[in-house]
# Entry
Amino acid sequence: MAGQREGERISRRDPPPYEEIEGGGLSAAISKHGLIGTALLDKNQYGPQAMILLLVITATVTGAFLGLAMILF
# Structure
């Protein structure tokens, strides 16, 4: 899959190692590879769901920080 294809100027990189998680869904994927491994390193098929979870966590922490800063300052 990696290499130069016709019509492409930049060659593709080899895909990262991928492991299919059979049962347990997103929670099993996160417990096996961690949130960062699942969301950012594409270690299994639950990367998009883990990215949404990471977005929700980041937005919650940011909102809490800004709300606290607004109250204090």
About this structure: The radius of gyration is 18 Å. The chain is about 55% helix and 0% strand.
